[in-house]
Amino acid sequence: MQIKAIKTRVFKENEDLVKFILKYIKKLPEQSVLVVTSKIVALSEGRIALFKNKKQKIALIKKESDFAIKTKYTWLTIKDDIVMSSAGIDESNANGKIVLLPKNSFRSAEFVRKKLRAKFKIKNLGILITDSRLLPLRAGIVGVALGYAGFKGVRDYRETPDIFGRILKLSRTDIADGLATAAVLCMGEGKEQQPLALITGAPVEFTSKINKKELYINPREDVYQPLFEKIKKIKFKK
Hints:
238 residues; 2 domains; three-stranded antiparallel beta sheet; 6 helices; 25% strand; globular
């Protein structure tokens, strides 16, 4: 698998996203995945607000979240079925404004896919819209898939044998977030100015229809839930 991050000029508010992409993407091979950072998708949709004060930002966080709880360092929220900080609302690289997440990342991914497939006359093309997130008990951020189109986001190994013939009961590979993490690593999070990346040779199954809920887990069934319920009883090593 190869990932090529693409340097661009600064994306402007309410700019045409597809036209912007075509300025830097002159060829898309069959069975490739184009990665687009969520920030430029949100900017193309006008999902911005002028930063006024912390109270205004908190109000936006609550409005954008399905669930929000204040913690020592941030607001922990559930947005688009993903646990994230502050509903994804971001002040970085925003020039004094705050940028919200795209309205519907899956729909945006499918729209871009449709336009680019027609432009380059290709059949199998994936579009992946990424953001970044924190993982429990890990320093630093990794990429996360907010929405995607054109490929299956999960590879299911359940009811298949392992190398010794044992039938797997729970094993699934999170393809979408795995690609997002790899791409974000190459694209960067600072002033790299690389909001696009092209992935070729990815081990994905291309498809015209996807299941938007294939990555979703009910919070009450999440493997980490018992840990969070008992976290106050844990004595951490100094």
